[in-house]
Amino acid sequence: MQLYHHPYSLDSQKVRMALEEKGIDYTSYHVNPLTGKNMSVDFFRMNPSAKLPVFQNGAHVIYRAIDIIQYLDRLAVHLSGEIPPVNTEVHQWMQKVDAWNPKMFTLTHTPVKYRAFVSKFIRRVLIARMAEAPDLASMYHVKLREAYETEDKVKDPEIMKQSEEELSKLLDDVEAQLSKTKYLAGDEFSPADSMFIPILARITLLDLDEEYISCRPKILEYYNLVKHRPSYKIAIGKYFNGWKKYRTLFKTSFFLCVRTLLRRY
C-alpha cells in the first residue's frame, strides 16, 4: 500500500492519522503541491485531479480523504475478522467535517505576496506540462482554468466571509457535541476525529487559535487531549515542534526562489 501525500496537506493529515490509528503499514511518498510535483506527468496520469492524498493498494486507487478513510475502516475489519456495530453518528460527523472546504479559508489567510508568487509558479508548471505531454493537454488546461478561477474567488470578500462562517458553524457544532462526549462521535476515538483534528492543526498553522479555538473551551480541551495520541504526533505533531515547523516551508520557499532565479538568468 502506498500513500502519496504532503505533511502540510490537510486531507493528507486526515488519512495519515487514520492509518496510524489502524496500525496499517504503508509506503510514504511526499508530493509537494507548492513545487508542482502533483502536476508531474506520471502523477497526473494516475490522478488527473492532482489533489492530495492518493492512496494505492495494488490496482485500487482512491483520491478523496473520506473515501480513503472509509476504505481503511473496511480493510481493518477484514484483517481483524471482527464485525463492529455500525455507528451512524461517526459517519454523519465524517460527512459534516468533509463538507467544509478549507481551500479558500487557507488562501485568504495566506499573505498576498506569497500567494501570488506560488500561483504564478503553478500556472507556469501547468503550461510547461501541457507541452511536455500533449495527450494530457486538455486535462492540464482544466487545471489551468481552475487556477485562474481560484485567483478570482480569493479576491471576493463574500466568498471569504462564507468560508469563515461555515467553519465557525462547524466549530460551534463540535463544541456543543464535546460538552456531551469525550470525542467527536462518542467516548472512543473514531475516524470522525481523524477527519476533524487536522482542521484544528490548520487553524494553528495560520496562527488563528485565539479566534477559533481558544474561545471554545471544550474544543481547546479536546485539542490538548488528542495531541498526546501517537497518531497525532506522527502525522501532525512532529511538523509543528520548534524548527521542524518551518523546515518544510523553508525548503519549499528555497526551491521556488531558485527556480525563479534560474528563469531570470
Automatic annotation (TrEMBL):
Gene3D superfamilies reported in the protein's UniProt record:
1.20.1050.10, Glutaredoxin
Any idea where the GST N-terminal domain is?
Answer: 1-80
Superkingdom field: Eukaryota
Q: Which residues form the signal peptide?
A: none
Q: Which InterPro entries match?
A: Glutathione-S-Trfase_C-like, Glutathione-S-Trfase_C_sf, Glutathione_S-Trfase, Glutathione_S-Trfase_N, GST_C, TCHQD, Thioredoxin-like_sf
Pinpoint the GST C-terminal domain residues. Answer: 111-254
Q: Which SUPFAM superfamilies match?
A: GST C-terminal domain-like (SSF47616), Thioredoxin-like (SSF52833)
User: What name does this protein carry?
Assistant: TCHQD class glutathione S-transferase
What organism does the UniProt record list as the source? Urochloa decumbens
